[in-house]
User: What shape does this take?
Amino acid sequence: MGTYMLAATDVDFMVHGLFQYEIFGQKLWITTTHVCTLIVMLILIIFALVVNIKIRKVRPEDEPKGLINACEIIVEKLDGMVINSMGEKHYRGFVNYIGTIFGFILLSNISGLLGLRPPTADYGVTFPLAVITFCLIHYNQFKYQKVKGVIAGLCDPWPIWAPINIVSDFAVPISLSLRLFANVLSGTAIMALIYALLSKFAVIWPAALHFYFDLFSGAIQTYVFSMLTMTYITNAFGEEN
Amino acid sequence: MNQVTGVELIKACSAIGAGLAVIAGIGPGVGQGIAAGYAASAVGRNPGAQGEIRSTMLLGQAVAETTGLYGLLVAILLLFVQPLAK
Assistant: This one.
């Protein structure tokens, strides 16, 4: 094999299979994505339990401090973000979902700092997230605009445009998931390239790149994913709602 | 020079194709720059609305970025999955 193969095997940012099992004649793998997703979820669950225990001891007349204060700021910011884009009327039903995906995607994106492979750099993680959004969009469309409104929306300028409108409906989850996936994957790939090909020189300064690719880009993509989810759902409410 | 086998030729062409695919990054770069420029002039005209302008700009830039990311995906598929060489 030539030298190019050497470089290609050293660069390693793909998903690895850890454990194979068989179910209904299908060979399936437990991969690094599963493990990293479980770690991210464990961190979130432990955080939630700790905050829950702490918040039960707080009396309402006390001044909030420490962890409780930080949590109040987070909840207020999330509430403000959802109210801003969805309006006062609808935000109660969606702030929990938006907060959940916000926390999960943000922690997944910055888990590269913990030495994990970010779970969102696997299309099998981002596509289900986008499918949930897709289901929410169409559930709310049917709930608020009724069947008549949905059909009227499909035949928007003229009935001939219905196939194009259907295709653009199905393009929403694909572009939503590919955007998040490709952004996180590109960061992971560039970091892997730097560590593999510049291994002798990558001493300290990759920390700045980690700051950009993991923290900054991860936070922006989290914001964009939840913002687009809210925008699409708000569009599904129709004009009078 | 030794004879080049078909698979090696396909791998070499895949690498060239990957390089060509990431040229798609030019478009989003220009588009995001234009969006940021207009956002800057909007902040200059109306400094009070800075937060709203920033979130609108980020949203628009993220949507504009998608085409570049498609090019990147094609490049990564060509380089690491090598669908044509199988």
